[in-house]
Amino acid sequence: MEEQIIKKTVFKNTTTGIVNGLFGATHYQNYHGYRQAMRRLNFLLWLIGIFGIVGSLPFRFNQHGSLTSLCILLLAAYFFAYYWITAKARLLKRDSQMVKASLSFDGKLSKEWNIYDGIYDDVDRQSLEIAFVNERSWLSNWVRLILRKRPVPFGPNDIDALQRYLIGLQQLSNDAMSYVAYGTVDQTMSSVLLENCIELREIDHHYLTKPGRWDYAFSVGDFRCGLWQYPDFKVYAMSMDTSRYNKIQAGKFKRQKINKDIAAKIRNLDLKGKAN
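-> structure tokens emitted (276 positions)
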């Protein structure tokens, strides 16, 4: 009897390991892993560019077009790897859109920020990573920048959804498990978050996930940010200053009530005037 239980346990563990292995080979489990793969791929693109430039020069070591042939092979490898990485990230991005859709109570949210599973985990902590810059191909970003297209800004609906999301995570946390959201931001974005009652606590550089240069350049609408003005980024754990947030919300509610009362009085005066 014990031997059968052991065999079943071993079979179950082996099957689970195979399934998890296959899933890991075909899907990214977090945004950080996806961005690391894209960074390595971008390095390959720079390497192809260097080989292409050197291969076009009349050097003796490029006889019979050896460097040009290598460049073509690397370019083929780049396109294959790009397709594979983006295919692996589809489920990750779809899940992010589903989470955002559940938050869009007060209007359409910007496509420029997303929520993913994080890597800032511990025994008693689960994390979610918030990316404030959306992913696009470098060609798409260049075309949009040349045409002077600007992304939908991080508006009031997005701020409100993010605030409610952070409050929900804090309410979900307990003594056994805490739920933490973190994200990589530049100085401008950190100022926006702080102004909207979102507290920031800097965490280890290991969890930093820099956005692509051209993704960031398009997000701010400035070509220079893809080249020499690419800013420094820091990674922060985020939480809501609920006391300050509640005071602001109470003030908004009070102002709305006063405005409604004034509008009602004006309507009553208009009705009396028409009756006379």
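Residues 31 and 184 are 12 Å apart (CA to CA).
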